[in-house]
Every structure is written in structure tokens, then in C-alpha cells.
Design a protein that fits this description.
Layout lengths: L20 H12 L17 H5 L32 H5 L18 H9 L1 H17 L4 H13 L5 H19 L5 H6 L14 H15 L2 H4 L3
């Protein structure tokens, strides 16, 4: 790249940093095939932990998290309560709305990683990505891995990366088969509910690929510019 563009006029090089909070949320929903591109309309109330609502000076009784397609609208339509910053967006350095923000801070704390692993929309995106992979790829795990990398990182995996992910899938299939994990709960968040499975797949497939998708959606290369 240095030889092709020594003066960086083509922007071949640049600092590497995590995407902004709103872009991160839109990215994972897009990879999962969940994002809903409806334009305009009322703001969308996002899910927040119950204790965030309980500790308000005045309980926001109107706060009912959006469901269905509305839940996955672009983050620009997200409802923000100035006196109650969204904890997931705050963990990813979104401004709180108290004053004009001309430049965002960039932090690197465990809270950001925990948000990507556990926040409801990120978890639902992992579940959605798993079903998308099972739906759009063949029954061969190698081809599924190739599709997953293309969706998340716009490239094919190396042989080593493919081997690591195959090992992960094998180990999680064993845990599901032995009863250590409930495939329905992993794939849907509910212990007695099944997702709409693509033809020829099983709840076990959805569960192990949800776990693999959770890994891929939280890789630095997935979430960071460059």
C-alpha cells in the first residue's frame, strides 16, 4: 500500500479504531439480516435493563421496548432520554445529550466487550446471523464459515481461522449433545421456544452457530475501522 499510494491521497492507510456506537449496532443488525430500513416515523424505544428504569427520579412508565421489525430499525431512530443515558450506547462512547458533542471520546474498557456479548440486540443479532448462515449456505460447515467471514469481515478465512472455528463448532455440538446446553434457549433466549429453522437444519445447528456468530460479531476486525 505504501508503494501504491505513498502520500495517502487514496486513503489507503489510516488509524484503526472501533466504529461509533450507533454504527456498531447498525452493523451487527445488517450482518444478521435483521435491520429494518423504514424511513421516518416515531422514535424506537430500545431495551434497557429494568434497574435503569427503576432508578429514575420519575419512573418512565411509557418505556416499552419496541418489538418485531421496529426493534431493528436504524439506531438514528433510537429514542434517547437525556436524564437516562442508554447504558449500552454509553459503554460504546455515545454522548449523553447533556451538551453539544463536537468530538467523541474513545475508550477501551471491559464494558464495551460485555455490551457486544450480552446486550439484547447484539445477542439477537448473533441468533439472526446464525439462521442467515444456515439459510444461505450449504450444509457443509466449511462453506458456512466462508459465508460467515464474508458477511462479517468481507473476506474469506485463512486455513488457521477456518480450523479454529471448526473446532469451536465441534466442541459446542458435543456440549449440546451431552445436555450441558439447551439449544432452544441459546437460539431464541427462551428455554421452550424454537426459532423458524431453515429446511434441513436442527435446533442444535441453530444453537452452535449462534455461539459461533457471537464470536465473529465481537472480533476486532468486525467492529473496527480498517
Amino acid at each position: 500500500l505504501l508503494a501504491i499510494d505513498p502520500e495517502n491521497r487514496l486513503l489507503q492507510r489510516g488509524p484503526r479504531f472501533r466504529a461509533d456506537a450507533e454504527i456498531m449496532r447498525d452493523m451487527v443488525m445488517t450482518m444478521a439480516g435483521l435491520i429494518h430500513h423504514e424511513l421516518g416515523g416515531p422514535s424506537v424505544i430500545p431495551p434497557v435493563p429494568q434497574n435503569v428504569l427503576d432508578y429514575n427520579y420519575t419512573y418512565p412508565s411509557y418505556w416499552t421496548s419496541a418489538e418485531g421489525k421496529q426493534r431493528y430499525r436504524r439506531t438514528v431512530y433510537g429514542f434517547r432520554k437525556r436524564s437516562m443515558p442508554d447504558p449500552s450506547m454509553s459503554s460504546l462512547d455515545a454522548p449523553n445529550g447533556d451538551f453539544s458533542c463536537v468530538r467523541r471520546i474513545r475508550s477501551n474498557t471491559p464494558l464495551a466487550a460485555l455490551t457486544g456479548l450480552n446486550e439484547p440486540v447484539f445477542v439477537e443479532s448473533a441468533q439472526g446471523l446464525a439462521l442467515r448462515i444456515l439459510r444461505e449456505a450449504s450444509t457443509d460447515d466449511r462453506q458456512r464459515i466462508d459465508l460467515a467471514f464474508q458477511l462479517c469481515m468481507a473476506r474469506l478465512p485463512t486455513n488457521e481461522e477456518r480450523s479454529v472455528l471448526l473446532d469451536l463448532l465441534d466442541s459446542q455440538r458435543k456440549r449440546v449433545a451431552e445436555g450441558w446446553l439447551n439449544p432452544r434457549e441459546i437460539a431464541t433466549g427462551l428455554p421452550d421456544q424454537l426459532p423458524e429453522l431453515p429446511e434441513g437444519t436442527t435446533p442444535q445447528d441453530a444453537a452452535v452457530w449462534t455461539l459461533a456468530a457471537r464470536v465473529l460479531l465481537n472480533l476486532d476486525e468486525t467492529l473496527c475501522k480498517n
